[in-house]
Design a protein that fits this description.
The protein is α+β, with helices and mostly antiparallel strands and about 80 residues long. Helix content is about 30%, strand content about 15%. The chain has 2 helices and 2 strands; from the N terminus they run αββα. β1 and β2 form a beta hairpin.
């Protein structure tokens, strides 16, 4: 009985550790660095995927150029970048 309990605890811990591993990136743009672009005329709040922390974060986008790692909402960022 004690052995069964130990095995159950080990299996539970293994499942928790596996679930906390970094998530895979779905869209290739998510791997790009944050890029606010060179302009400041039409600044707006956008979201980018921070691959170091595996989280979507807010930033101020200047309104021109930049790159594809720019999303209109946290939900859009998560939908594209977090599987």
């Amino acid at each position: 009985m004690r052995l069964l309990l130990v095995l159950l605890i080990v299996a539970l811990v293994a499942a928790l550790v596996t679930g906390q591993q970094k998530k895979k990136i779905q869209d290739k743009n998510c791997a790009l660095p944050k890029d606010a672009g060179p302009c400041n005329e039409r600044a707006s709040l956008k979201w980018y995927y921070d691959s170091k922390s595996s989280k979507c974060r807010r930033f101020v986008y200047g309104g021109c150029q930049g790159n594809g790692n720019r999303w209109d909402s946290d939900a859009d960022c998560k939908k594209k970048c977090i599987v």
